[in-house]
Specification:
Elements: H1 3-24, H2 29-34, H3 36-46, E1 61-64, H4 70-80, H5 120-133, E2 140-145, H6 152-163, E3 169-175, E4 178-179, E5 182-183, H7 184-188, H8 193-199, E6 203-207, H9 213-225, E7 231-236, H10 259-277
Parallel strand pairs: 1-2, 2-3, 3-7, 6-7
Antiparallel strand pairs: 4-5
Helix pairs in contact: 1-3, 1-4, 1-10, 3-4, 3-9, 5-6
Organism: Blautia hydrogenotrophica (strain DSM 10507 / JCM 14656 / S5a33) (Ruminococcus hydrogenotrophicus)
Domain Transketolase N-terminal: 8-262
Pfam families: Transketolase_N
């Protein structure tokens, strides 16, 4: 896909996020929206996957370590054709397969159940080690929140990844600067993030704007060319990106929009879509 097509797709993913969380009357829109562009880039450009064969042996793997942003992952999977888009409106409903956190047993395209913060990266490291031991070609990607990396288990996993020289592993940190309790620098600062990963023998790529497709394209290309060590992509993003009243507001970490707010949010995203169509 070219950059414009990716931008249009990401905007559709954002509509899916807002619609799902509104229908559920619960969920996590802020961090789903900040990561919508990277979800889109991964599933429409970067990863070797096939929605018609979600379990194909040589597929690239993705682990959503910050599992509460499942609405973002689900919206991308639906847009990519893993399941019907209308199913997004069943998010968190009793009997729906689209639970509040990713479930590998029931959701096509989900490679790892996740949600307990700090644990997803460990699973991703295990998958990457497995690929090396089996001489398989697949790559492993995992997305972490910047608040999540306050968890100690993240750094145990990073130590192992660096030690094993897992150049088939890409750890992405969604650095939107906000967690449920507010500014990450005030709650328990993880800064400088890049230098920490460097200390664990990672190749670090700092992305100034993780909501920019061209910058994401450059970062993932560089990660592919990196040999002999894992890569950490630390991307600065805007929490609630694309929805005017949600942007950079910690209060939208885990709050669902009411009907009036939903209408405003969708109008915002329609305007973005119209602007992209003019390009």
């Amino acid at each position: 896909m070219n950059t414009l097509e990716l931008q249009k797709t990401a905007n559709e993913v954002r509509k899916g996020i807002v619609s799902a969380v509104h229908a559920a009357k619960a969920g996590h829109p802020g961090g789903s929206l900040s990561a919508a562009d990277v979800f889109t880039y991964l599933y429409f450009e970067e990863m070797n996957i096939d929605p018609k064969d979600p379990k194909k042996a040589d597929r690239d793997r993705f682990v959503l370590s910050k599992g509460h942003t499942a609405p973002g992952l689900y919206a991308a999977l639906a847009q990519r054709g893993y399941f019907p888009k209308e199913d997004l409106l069943t998010l968190r409903h009793l009997g729906s397969y689209l639970q509040g956190h990713p479930d590998m047993k029931h959701i096509p395209g989900v490679d790892m159940s996740s949600g307990s913060l700090g644990q997803g990266i460990s699973a991703a490291v295990g998958m990457a080690i497995s690929a090396k031991l089996s001489d398989e070609s697949y790559r492993v990607y995992t997305l972490l929140g910047d608040g999540e990396i306050q968890e100690g288990q993240v750094w145990e996993a990073a130590m192992m990844a660096g030690h094993r020289k897992l150049d088939n592993l890409v750890v992405i940190v969604d650095n939107n600067g906000l967690q449920i309790d507010g500014d990450i620098a005030q709650v328990c600062s993880p800064y400088p993030i890049g230098k920490k990963f460097e200390a664990f023998n990672f190749h670090v790529i700092e992305v100034e704007d993780g909501n920019d497709m061209d910058q994401l394209r450059e970062a993932f290309a560089e990660a592919r060319q990196t040999k002999g060590m894992p890569t950490a992509i630390v991307m600065k993003t805007v929490k609630g990106k694309g929805v005017s009243f949600m942007e950079n507001q910690a209060s939208w970490h885990g709050t669902a929009p009411n009907d009036e707010q939903y209408a405003v949010a969708m109008a915002d995203l329609e305007k973005v879509g119209e602007a992209l169509c003019q390009k």
